[in-house]
Design brief:
Layout (H helix, E strand, L loop, with lengths): L9 H14 L4 H10 L8 H29 L6 H4 L16 H19 L10 H19 L11
């Protein structure tokens, strides 16, 4: 411990922390500012840990689902490795200026649905399933849209 923390007795520090936690309901903007400046406060209470993990899952689930769907369902396990490292507009991974707009659109939709599952009080019984709900929606939408627009998939080399 530093000399600064020894200036105050432990009872005083505990009382100050308790007072801050009691007042957080009255000043939510100050609490969110404290979380932004000191992110370890996200783990101060068990419900905040669950909320943090649920919010992370709303982003990670759709991302992983899009990657797996693209590899296993859309491209059926075939990858043109040399095309991954070249930036030519006629290659299968170029999409639209190097960005896959379908993946972005599906990601946004799945994250919105996952966030609704986490934050809507009516969906509280299933809010811990946001990873699977967002991931399932992303996999389904991405698979359907990309299989319908499969003109790019025919440019793979026949090895």
């Amino acid at each position: 411990m530093s000399n600064k923390s020894k200036r105050f007795p432990p009872e005083f520090r505990e009382r100050a922390a308790r007072m801050v936690l009691e007042e957080e309901k009255n000043h939510p903007s100050r609490w969110s500012g404290a979380v932004i400046m000191t992110p370890w406060n996200l783990y101060a209470r068990p419900e905040l840990i669950h909320l943090t993990l649920d919010v992370l899952a709303t982003f990670i689930g759709p991302l992983i689902a899009i990657l797996l769907t693209d590899y296993y369902i859309v491209r059926r396990g075939v990858i043109d490795v040399s095309a991954l490292y070249r930036s030519q507009s006629n290659l299968p991974y170029w999409y639209h200026n190097g960005i896959n707009p379908v993946a972005i659109l599906v990601m946004v939709i799945a994250v919105i649905v996952g966030s609704a599952v986490v934050f809507m009080p009516a969906l509280e019984p299933i809010h811990n399933l946001s990873l699977f709900i967002g991931g399932g929606i992303a996999a389904l939408l991405y698979g359907i849209i990309m299989r319908r627009h499969s003109y790019r998939l025919t440019t793979f080399p026949s090895s």
